[in-house]
Amino acid sequence: MGLIDEGRLESLSHEEIARYSRHLLLPEIGLEGQKRIKASKVLIVGTGGLGAPLALYLAAAGVGTIGVVDFDFVEASNLQRQIIHGVRDIGRPKTASARDKIRSINPGVKVVEHNVALTSSNALQIISQYDVVADGTDNYQTRYLVNDACVLLGKPNVYGSIFQFEGQASVFYSKEGPCYRCLYPAPPPPGLVPSCAEGGVMGVLPGIVGTIQAGEVIKLISGESLKGTLVGRLLLFDQWRMKFRELKLDKDPDCPICGKNPTIHELIDYEQFCGLKPETQEILYETIEPLELKARLDAGETLQIIDIREPHEKAIAKFPGAKSMPLGQVKRRSSEFDPSIDTVFICKIGTRSVFAIRALRETGYDGKIFNLADGINGWARDVDKSLPRY
Amino acid sequence: MATLLIPTALRAFAGGQPELDLDGSTAGEVIAALALKHPEIKEHLYEESGKLRSFINVYVGDENVKKLQGLDTPVKESDSVMLVPAIAGGRKWD
Protein backbone atom coordinates (compact mmCIF):
# COMPACT_ATOMS: atom_id res chain seq x y z
CA MET A 1 0.00 0.00 0.00
CA GLY A 2 1.62 3.23 -1.13
CA LEU A 3 1.43 6.62 0.50
CA ILE A 4 -0.56 8.14 -2.33
CA ASP A 5 -4.16 7.00 -2.51
CA GLU A 6 -5.19 5.55 -5.90
CA GLY A 7 -8.25 7.79 -5.96
CA ARG A 8 -6.02 10.86 -6.32
CA LEU A 9 -4.23 9.67 -9.46
CA GLU A 10 -4.80 11.46 -12.75
CA SER A 11 -3.64 10.49 -16.22
CA LEU A 12 -0.48 11.99 -17.73
CA SER A 13 -0.64 14.22 -20.80
CA HIS A 14 1.50 13.46 -23.86
CA GLU A 15 3.81 16.29 -22.83
CA GLU A 16 4.18 14.79 -19.38
CA ILE A 17 4.86 11.34 -20.82
CA ALA A 18 7.63 12.84 -22.95
CA ARG A 19 9.03 14.84 -20.07
CA TYR A 20 9.12 11.97 -17.59
CA SER A 21 9.98 9.19 -20.06
CA ARG A 22 13.19 8.23 -18.19
CA HIS A 23 11.12 7.56 -15.08
CA LEU A 24 8.42 5.74 -17.04
CA LEU A 25 11.09 3.41 -18.43
CA LEU A 26 12.03 2.27 -14.94
CA PRO A 27 9.83 -0.65 -13.91
CA GLU A 28 10.24 0.49 -10.29
CA ILE A 29 8.50 3.80 -11.12
CA GLY A 30 6.69 3.37 -14.44
CA LEU A 31 3.45 5.08 -15.42
CA GLU A 32 1.71 4.40 -12.10
CA GLY A 33 4.67 5.65 -10.10
CA GLN A 34 4.87 8.86 -12.12
CA LYS A 35 1.14 9.43 -11.62
CA ARG A 36 1.70 9.08 -7.88
CA ILE A 37 4.58 11.56 -8.05
CA LYS A 38 2.27 13.96 -9.87
CA ALA A 39 -0.49 13.53 -7.29
CA SER A 40 1.85 13.92 -4.32
CA LYS A 41 2.37 16.89 -2.04
CA VAL A 42 5.78 17.30 -0.47
CA LEU A 43 6.78 19.87 2.13
CA ILE A 44 10.39 21.02 2.23
CA VAL A 45 11.24 22.60 5.57
CA GLY A 46 14.09 25.05 4.99
CA THR A 47 15.29 26.23 1.59
CA GLY A 48 18.97 26.35 2.48
CA GLY A 49 21.76 23.92 1.71
CA LEU A 50 19.62 20.78 1.96
CA GLY A 51 16.37 22.35 0.73
CA ALA A 52 18.00 23.65 -2.46
CA PRO A 53 18.81 20.30 -4.12
CA LEU A 54 15.63 18.83 -2.65
CA ALA A 55 13.48 21.45 -4.33
CA LEU A 56 15.38 21.32 -7.62
CA TYR A 57 15.21 17.52 -7.98
CA LEU A 58 11.63 17.20 -6.74
CA ALA A 59 10.59 19.89 -9.22
CA ALA A 60 12.44 18.15 -12.04
CA ALA A 61 10.85 14.83 -11.05
CA GLY A 62 7.34 16.27 -11.39
CA VAL A 63 6.12 16.31 -7.78
CA GLY A 64 2.64 17.83 -8.12
CA THR A 65 2.75 20.19 -5.16
CA ILE A 66 5.90 21.41 -3.44
CA GLY A 67 5.55 23.45 -0.26
CA VAL A 68 8.56 25.43 0.91
CA VAL A 69 8.88 26.78 4.45
CA ASP A 70 11.45 29.44 5.27
CA PHE A 71 11.37 32.82 6.97
CA ASP A 72 14.89 33.80 5.96
CA PHE A 73 16.30 36.07 3.26
CA VAL A 74 19.05 35.19 0.80
CA GLU A 75 22.52 36.38 1.88
CA ALA A 76 25.80 36.33 -0.02
CA SER A 77 27.29 33.73 2.32
CA ASN A 78 24.46 31.31 1.39
CA LEU A 79 25.47 31.06 -2.25
CA GLN A 80 28.48 28.78 -1.65
CA ARG A 81 26.02 25.88 -1.14
CA GLN A 82 22.37 26.98 -1.54
CA ILE A 83 22.28 26.47 -5.28
CA ILE A 84 18.60 27.31 -5.69
CA HIS A 85 19.47 30.98 -5.02
CA GLY A 86 21.61 33.26 -7.17
CA VAL A 87 23.34 36.63 -6.87
CA ARG A 88 20.25 38.48 -8.07
CA ASP A 89 18.21 36.88 -5.24
CA ILE A 90 20.30 38.42 -2.44
CA GLY A 91 17.91 40.18 -0.08
CA ARG A 92 14.81 38.34 -1.36
CA PRO A 93 12.82 35.90 0.77
CA LYS A 94 14.22 32.43 0.22
CA THR A 95 10.76 31.03 -0.50
CA ALA A 96 10.26 33.53 -3.34
CA SER A 97 13.61 32.71 -4.87
CA ALA A 98 12.90 28.97 -4.54
CA ARG A 99 9.44 29.40 -6.11
CA ASP A 100 10.89 31.15 -9.16
CA LYS A 101 13.55 28.49 -9.67
CA ILE A 102 11.07 25.61 -9.24
CA ARG A 103 8.74 27.21 -11.78
CA SER A 104 11.53 27.76 -14.28
CA ILE A 105 12.50 24.10 -14.02
CA ASN A 106 8.95 22.80 -14.13
CA PRO A 107 5.91 25.04 -14.62
CA GLY A 108 3.71 21.99 -14.01
CA VAL A 109 4.56 22.04 -10.29
CA LYS A 110 2.29 23.90 -7.92
CA VAL A 111 4.46 25.78 -5.43
CA VAL A 112 3.09 26.78 -2.05
CA GLU A 113 5.17 29.37 -0.22
CA HIS A 114 5.09 29.30 3.56
CA ASN A 115 7.13 32.41 4.26
CA VAL A 116 7.01 31.90 8.02
CA ALA A 117 8.99 30.26 10.77
CA LEU A 118 7.62 26.80 11.50
CA THR A 119 6.36 26.89 15.11
CA SER A 120 4.33 24.81 17.50
CA SER A 121 1.30 26.91 16.63
CA ASN A 122 1.39 26.45 12.84
CA ALA A 123 3.29 23.18 12.24
CA LEU A 124 0.37 20.75 12.46
CA GLN A 125 -1.82 22.89 10.24
CA ILE A 126 0.93 23.25 7.59
CA ILE A 127 2.27 19.69 7.67
CA SER A 128 -1.21 18.12 7.60
CA GLN A 129 -1.62 19.38 4.01
CA TYR A 130 1.26 17.23 2.74
CA ASP A 131 2.04 13.55 2.18
CA VAL A 132 5.74 13.65 3.01
CA VAL A 133 7.99 16.11 4.84
CA ALA A 134 11.65 16.63 3.95
CA ASP A 135 13.57 18.12 6.84
CA GLY A 136 16.25 20.50 5.67
CA THR A 137 16.35 22.62 8.81
CA ASP A 138 19.45 23.92 10.49
CA ASN A 139 18.64 23.88 14.20
CA TYR A 140 17.53 21.47 16.89
CA GLN A 141 14.29 23.24 17.86
CA THR A 142 12.84 22.87 14.37
CA ARG A 143 14.15 19.31 14.00
CA TYR A 144 12.29 18.17 17.12
CA LEU A 145 9.25 20.18 16.08
CA VAL A 146 9.19 18.59 12.60
CA ASN A 147 9.74 15.14 14.11
CA ASP A 148 6.98 15.48 16.67
CA ALA A 149 4.49 16.96 14.22
CA CYS A 150 5.20 14.14 11.74
CA VAL A 151 4.78 11.49 14.45
CA LEU A 152 1.51 13.04 15.65
CA LEU A 153 0.18 13.27 12.07
CA GLY A 154 1.57 9.90 10.94
CA LYS A 155 3.68 11.39 8.13
CA PRO A 156 7.10 10.21 6.97
CA ASN A 157 9.95 12.62 7.74
CA VAL A 158 12.84 12.42 5.31
CA TYR A 159 15.76 13.56 7.40
CA GLY A 160 19.10 15.06 6.45
CA SER A 161 21.63 16.89 8.57
CA ILE A 162 25.11 18.25 7.97
CA PHE A 163 28.14 19.60 9.77
CA GLN A 164 31.47 20.58 8.20
CA PHE A 165 32.24 17.46 6.10
CA GLU A 166 29.80 15.06 7.63
CA GLY A 167 26.20 14.25 6.85
CA GLN A 168 23.42 12.06 8.18
CA ALA A 169 20.31 10.87 6.38
CA SER A 170 17.40 8.66 7.32
CA VAL A 171 13.66 8.30 6.95
CA PHE A 172 11.82 8.65 10.24
CA TYR A 173 8.38 7.11 9.90
CA SER A 174 7.00 6.17 13.26
CA LYS A 175 4.22 4.00 11.86
CA GLU A 176 6.85 1.71 10.42
CA GLY A 177 10.07 2.39 12.31
CA PRO A 178 11.93 4.73 14.63
CA CYS A 179 11.58 8.50 14.89
CA TYR A 180 14.27 11.12 15.52
CA ARG A 181 13.63 11.00 19.26
CA CYS A 182 14.27 7.23 19.31
CA LEU A 183 17.81 8.04 18.15
CA TYR A 184 18.35 11.32 19.98
CA PRO A 185 16.09 11.72 23.03
CA ALA A 186 17.50 15.19 23.72
CA PRO A 187 19.57 17.79 21.87
CA PRO A 188 23.03 18.92 22.93
CA PRO A 189 23.06 21.80 25.40
CA PRO A 190 23.31 25.10 23.47
CA GLY A 191 26.87 26.02 22.66
CA LEU A 192 28.41 22.60 23.18
CA VAL A 193 28.64 21.82 19.47
CA PRO A 194 29.45 24.67 17.09
CA SER A 195 27.04 25.42 14.25
CA CYS A 196 27.97 25.54 10.56
CA ALA A 197 27.86 29.34 10.85
CA GLU A 198 30.88 29.03 13.12
CA GLY A 199 32.31 25.61 12.23
CA GLY A 200 31.93 25.94 8.47
CA VAL A 201 30.49 23.50 5.96
CA MET A 202 31.80 22.20 2.66
CA GLY A 203 29.46 23.54 -0.01
CA VAL A 204 28.83 20.30 -1.88
CA LEU A 205 28.02 18.34 1.29
CA PRO A 206 24.40 19.53 1.59
CA GLY A 207 24.15 18.97 -2.18
CA ILE A 208 24.89 15.29 -1.68
CA VAL A 209 22.83 14.82 1.48
CA GLY A 210 19.87 16.83 0.12
CA THR A 211 19.98 14.81 -3.09
CA ILE A 212 19.90 11.59 -1.05
CA GLN A 213 16.82 13.00 0.70
CA ALA A 214 15.22 13.84 -2.67
CA GLY A 215 15.80 10.24 -3.79
CA GLU A 216 14.14 8.91 -0.64
CA VAL A 217 11.16 11.24 -1.14
CA ILE A 218 10.69 10.01 -4.71
CA LYS A 219 10.90 6.37 -3.62
CA LEU A 220 8.36 6.98 -0.85
CA ILE A 221 5.80 8.75 -3.03
CA SER A 222 6.16 6.67 -6.20
CA GLY A 223 6.42 3.24 -4.67
CA GLU A 224 4.03 0.77 -3.17
CA SER A 225 6.20 -0.23 -0.23
CA LEU A 226 8.93 1.15 1.97
CA LYS A 227 11.36 -1.52 0.80
CA GLY A 228 14.76 -0.06 0.07
CA THR A 229 14.11 3.24 1.84
CA LEU A 230 16.16 4.45 4.80
CA VAL A 231 13.39 3.58 7.29
CA GLY A 232 15.25 1.94 10.21
CA ARG A 233 18.69 2.87 8.91
CA LEU A 234 20.97 5.84 9.47
CA LEU A 235 23.31 6.73 6.65
CA LEU A 236 26.49 8.55 7.65
CA PHE A 237 28.64 10.28 5.10
CA ASP A 238 32.12 11.70 5.61
CA GLN A 239 32.89 13.82 2.59
CA TRP A 240 36.53 14.53 3.40
CA ARG A 241 37.43 10.89 3.90
CA MET A 242 34.86 9.84 1.27
CA LYS A 243 33.21 7.18 3.37
CA PHE A 244 29.62 6.09 3.63
CA ARG A 245 28.53 4.03 6.62
CA GLU A 246 25.19 2.54 7.45
CA LEU A 247 23.94 1.99 10.98
CA LYS A 248 20.87 0.16 12.23
CA LEU A 249 18.19 2.26 13.88
CA ASP A 250 15.69 0.69 16.19
CA LYS A 251 12.43 1.99 17.49
CA ASP A 252 12.81 2.84 21.16
CA PRO A 253 9.91 1.26 23.06
CA ASP A 254 10.40 4.00 25.69
CA CYS A 255 10.36 6.85 23.14
CA PRO A 256 8.32 9.67 24.72
CA ILE A 257 6.39 10.32 21.49
CA CYS A 258 6.29 7.10 19.43
CA GLY A 259 6.97 4.47 22.11
CA LYS A 260 4.54 2.15 23.87
CA ASN A 261 3.49 4.66 26.52
CA PRO A 262 3.96 8.08 24.98
CA THR A 263 4.06 11.09 27.27
CA ILE A 264 4.02 13.71 24.50
CA HIS A 265 0.59 14.04 22.91
CA GLU A 266 0.86 17.53 21.45
CA LEU A 267 3.55 19.93 20.29
CA ILE A 268 5.61 21.47 23.07
CA ASP A 269 7.78 24.56 23.58
CA TYR A 270 10.87 23.59 21.60
CA GLU A 271 12.95 26.61 22.62
CA GLN A 272 12.60 25.48 26.19
CA PHE A 273 13.17 21.82 25.31
CA CYS A 274 16.43 22.75 23.59
CA GLY A 275 17.59 24.75 26.61
CA LEU A 276 17.32 28.09 24.85
CA LYS A 277 15.14 29.55 27.59
CA PRO A 278 17.05 28.95 30.80
CA GLU A 279 14.75 29.30 33.77
CA THR A 280 17.24 31.25 35.83
CA GLN A 281 19.39 33.44 33.69
CA GLU A 282 22.91 33.24 35.07
CA ILE A 283 24.87 36.44 34.75
CA LEU A 284 28.23 35.41 33.39
CA TYR A 285 29.28 38.52 31.51
CA GLU A 286 28.28 41.88 30.12
CA THR A 287 28.00 42.63 26.43
CA ILE A 288 30.20 45.33 24.93
CA GLU A 289 29.40 46.94 21.59
CA PRO A 290 32.28 47.29 19.10
CA LEU A 291 32.23 51.12 19.26
CA GLU A 292 32.29 51.07 23.04
CA LEU A 293 35.31 48.75 23.02
CA LYS A 294 37.03 51.05 20.52
CA ALA A 295 36.40 54.05 22.79
CA ARG A 296 37.89 52.25 25.80
CA LEU A 297 40.96 51.18 23.81
CA ASP A 298 41.38 54.69 22.39
CA ALA A 299 41.25 56.04 25.94
CA GLY A 300 44.32 53.94 26.68
CA GLU A 301 42.59 51.52 29.05
CA THR A 302 44.32 48.20 29.71
CA LEU A 303 42.09 45.28 28.82
CA GLN A 304 42.70 41.56 28.42
CA ILE A 305 41.40 40.87 24.93
CA ILE A 306 41.05 37.15 24.31
CA ASP A 307 40.40 35.82 20.82
CA ILE A 308 39.01 32.30 21.18
CA ARG A 309 38.82 31.57 17.47
CA GLU A 310 40.85 28.78 15.82
CA PRO A 311 44.15 29.66 14.10
CA HIS A 312 42.74 29.21 10.56
CA GLU A 313 40.03 31.77 11.31
CA LYS A 314 42.56 34.34 12.45
CA ALA A 315 44.11 34.05 9.01
CA ILE A 316 40.83 35.51 7.67
CA ALA A 317 40.65 38.48 10.04
CA LYS A 318 42.95 39.35 12.95
CA PHE A 319 41.98 41.42 15.95
CA PRO A 320 44.87 43.78 16.75
CA GLY A 321 46.49 43.18 20.12
CA ALA A 322 44.30 40.23 21.08
CA LYS A 323 45.74 37.25 22.87
CA SER A 324 45.02 34.00 21.08
CA MET A 325 43.42 31.26 23.14
CA PRO A 326 41.35 28.76 21.15
CA LEU A 327 38.11 27.78 22.88
CA GLY A 328 39.36 24.34 23.92
CA GLN A 329 42.30 25.83 25.85
CA VAL A 330 40.50 28.43 27.99
CA LYS A 331 39.87 26.20 30.98
CA ARG A 332 43.39 24.89 31.32
CA ARG A 333 44.96 28.33 30.74
CA SER A 334 42.71 30.10 33.28
CA SER A 335 45.74 31.09 35.40
CA GLU A 336 46.81 33.43 32.58
CA PHE A 337 43.87 35.75 33.37
CA ASP A 338 44.28 38.65 35.78
CA PRO A 339 40.98 39.24 37.65
CA SER A 340 41.94 42.86 38.39
CA ILE A 341 41.78 43.72 34.68
CA ASP A 342 38.58 43.66 32.60
CA THR A 343 38.52 40.86 30.03
CA VAL A 344 36.90 41.04 26.60
CA PHE A 345 36.18 37.80 24.74
CA ILE A 346 36.08 37.78 20.97
CA CYS A 347 34.85 35.11 18.56
CA LYS A 348 33.37 35.24 15.08
CA ILE A 349 29.81 36.36 15.84
CA GLY A 350 29.64 36.65 19.61
CA THR A 351 28.11 33.28 20.44
CA ARG A 352 30.97 30.77 20.76
CA SER A 353 32.67 33.15 23.20
CA VAL A 354 29.80 32.57 25.64
CA PHE A 355 30.99 28.99 25.90
CA ALA A 356 34.54 30.18 26.59
CA ILE A 357 33.24 32.55 29.27
CA ARG A 358 31.26 29.77 30.87
CA ALA A 359 34.37 27.54 30.85
CA LEU A 360 36.41 30.28 32.53
CA ARG A 361 33.68 30.97 35.12
CA GLU A 362 33.62 27.25 35.95
CA THR A 363 37.21 27.53 37.14
CA GLY A 364 36.00 30.01 39.76
CA TYR A 365 37.24 33.12 37.92
CA ASP A 366 35.47 36.18 39.32
CA GLY A 367 37.01 39.02 37.32
CA LYS A 368 34.84 41.21 35.13
CA ILE A 369 34.13 39.72 31.70
CA PHE A 370 32.76 41.36 28.57
CA ASN A 371 31.64 39.63 25.40
CA LEU A 372 32.15 41.56 22.17
CA ALA A 373 28.71 41.89 20.53
CA ASP A 374 28.62 40.19 17.09
CA GLY A 375 32.27 39.19 17.49
CA ILE A 376 34.94 40.19 15.02
CA ASN A 377 32.24 40.49 12.36
CA GLY A 378 30.70 43.28 14.48
CA TRP A 379 34.11 44.92 14.85
CA ALA A 380 34.59 44.76 11.05
CA ARG A 381 31.10 46.21 10.54
CA ASP A 382 31.31 49.11 13.02
CA VAL A 383 34.96 49.90 13.62
CA ASP A 384 37.49 48.52 11.16
CA LYS A 385 35.90 48.33 7.74
CA SER A 386 39.19 47.14 6.23
CA LEU A 387 38.56 43.73 7.81
CA PRO A 388 36.46 41.22 5.91
CA ARG A 389 33.33 39.74 7.46
CA TYR A 390 33.00 35.97 7.11
CA MET B 1 41.91 -2.38 22.29
CA ALA B 2 39.57 -1.21 19.55
CA THR B 3 39.35 1.53 16.94
CA LEU B 4 37.30 4.54 17.99
CA LEU B 5 35.78 6.53 15.12
CA ILE B 6 35.50 10.19 16.02
CA PRO B 7 32.89 12.30 14.18
CA THR B 8 33.74 15.69 12.68
CA ALA B 9 31.87 17.56 15.41
CA LEU B 10 34.16 16.13 18.10
CA ARG B 11 37.45 15.93 16.22
CA ALA B 12 38.50 19.44 17.22
CA PHE B 13 38.61 18.22 20.81
CA ALA B 14 40.57 15.07 19.92
CA GLY B 15 43.61 16.58 18.25
CA GLY B 16 41.82 16.55 14.88
CA GLN B 17 42.04 12.75 14.67
CA PRO B 18 39.26 10.94 12.74
CA GLU B 19 40.07 7.63 14.44
CA LEU B 20 42.25 6.34 17.22
CA ASP B 21 43.25 2.89 18.43
CA LEU B 22 42.55 2.91 22.14
CA ASP B 23 42.81 0.46 25.00
CA GLY B 24 39.72 -0.96 26.60
CA SER B 25 37.76 -4.18 26.67
CA THR B 26 34.33 -2.51 26.55
CA ALA B 27 32.87 0.34 24.47
CA GLY B 28 32.75 2.52 27.60
CA GLU B 29 36.41 1.87 28.41
CA VAL B 30 37.49 2.78 24.89
CA ILE B 31 35.59 6.08 25.12
CA ALA B 32 37.03 6.75 28.59
CA ALA B 33 40.51 6.17 27.12
CA LEU B 34 39.80 8.95 24.61
CA ALA B 35 38.83 11.34 27.40
CA LEU B 36 42.00 10.44 29.25
CA LYS B 37 44.15 11.11 26.21
CA HIS B 38 42.33 14.34 25.24
CA PRO B 39 40.91 15.89 28.43
CA GLU B 40 39.31 18.81 26.49
CA ILE B 41 36.80 16.37 24.98
CA LYS B 42 35.56 15.19 28.37
CA GLU B 43 32.86 17.81 28.90
CA HIS B 44 31.62 17.24 25.36
CA LEU B 45 31.19 13.51 26.01
CA TYR B 46 30.00 13.34 29.58
CA GLU B 47 27.45 15.13 31.74
CA GLU B 48 28.63 16.38 35.12
CA SER B 49 27.23 13.19 36.66
CA GLY B 50 29.68 11.21 34.50
CA LYS B 51 26.91 9.83 32.29
CA LEU B 52 27.53 9.87 28.54
CA ARG B 53 25.59 12.76 27.00
CA SER B 54 22.26 11.74 25.52
CA PHE B 55 22.89 13.40 22.16
CA ILE B 56 25.75 10.97 21.51
CA ASN B 57 24.96 7.45 20.38
CA VAL B 58 27.57 4.73 20.57
CA TYR B 59 27.75 2.04 17.93
CA VAL B 60 29.85 -1.10 17.86
CA GLY B 61 29.91 -2.21 14.26
CA ASP B 62 26.48 -1.28 12.91
CA GLU B 63 24.59 -1.90 16.16
CA ASN B 64 23.68 0.71 18.74
CA VAL B 65 25.06 -0.35 22.12
CA LYS B 66 21.60 0.41 23.57
CA LYS B 67 20.56 -2.84 21.90
CA LEU B 68 23.64 -4.69 23.17
CA GLN B 69 24.99 -4.22 26.69
CA GLY B 70 25.24 -0.44 26.70
CA LEU B 71 28.68 0.91 27.48
CA ASP B 72 29.56 -2.51 28.93
CA THR B 73 29.36 -4.02 25.45
CA PRO B 74 32.60 -5.99 25.05
CA VAL B 75 34.88 -5.03 22.16
CA LYS B 76 37.68 -6.91 20.42
CA GLU B 77 40.68 -5.54 18.59
CA SER B 78 38.95 -5.89 15.23
CA ASP B 79 35.88 -3.89 16.37
CA SER B 80 35.15 -0.28 15.62
CA VAL B 81 33.42 1.82 18.22
CA MET B 82 31.72 4.86 16.73
CA LEU B 83 30.45 8.02 18.37
CA VAL B 84 27.38 9.32 16.53
CA PRO B 85 26.35 12.73 17.88
CA ALA B 86 23.32 14.72 16.79
CA ILE B 87 24.25 17.35 14.22
CA ALA B 88 21.96 20.16 13.18
CA GLY B 89 23.59 22.38 10.57
CA GLY B 90 23.78 26.02 9.89
CA ARG B 91 22.06 28.51 12.09
CA LYS B 92 24.09 30.52 14.54
CA TRP B 93 22.91 29.72 18.03
CA ASP B 94 21.18 32.90 18.92
Which structural class do the helices and strands of chain A define? alpha/beta
What kind of oligomer do you see?
A: heterodimer
Q: Please report the number of helical segments of chain A.
A: 15
Q: What value does the Rg of chain A take, in angstroms?
A: 24 Å
Say which CATH homologous superfamily of the largest domain in chain A is assigned: NAD(P)-binding Rossmann-like Domain
User: What is the 3D shape of chain B?
Assistant: globular
- In the CATH hierarchy, the third-tier topology of chain B is known as Ubiquitin-like (UB roll)
The helix fraction of chain B, in percent, is: 10-25%
Strand content of chain B: 15-25%
- Name the strands of the widest sheet of chain B in spatial order: 2-1-5-3-4
Radius of gyration of chain B: 13 Å
- Poorly predicted ranges of chain B: none
Q: What characterizes the major β-sheet of chain A?
A: 8 strands, mixed
Largest sheet geometry of chain B = 5 strands, mixed
Tell how many strands the DSSP assignment of chain B holds. Answer: 5
Overall CATH class of the largest domain in chain A: Alpha Beta
Topology (elements, then pairings):
The complex is a heterodimer of chains A (390) and B (94).
Chain A: H1 14-19, H2 21-24, H3 30-39, E1 41-45, H4 51-61, E2 65-69, H5 94-105, E3 110-114, H6 123-127, E4 132-135, H7 140-153, E5 157-163, E6 166-172, H8 180-183, H9 196-199, H10 204-222, E7 233-238, E8 243-248, H11 270-273, E9 286-288, H12 290-298, E10 304-307, H13 311-314, E11 323-324, E12 343-346, H14 352-362, E13 369-372, H15 375-382
Parallel strand pairs in A: 1-2, 1-4, 2-3, 4-5, 9-13, 10-11, 10-12, 12-13
Antiparallel strand pairs in A: 5-6, 6-7, 7-8
Helix pairs in contact in A: 4-5, 4-10
Chain B: E1 2-5, H1 8-11, E2 19-22, H2 27-37, H3 42-45, E3 56-60, E4 63-64, E5 80-85
Parallel strand pairs in B: 1-5
Antiparallel strand pairs in B: 1-2, 3-4, 3-5
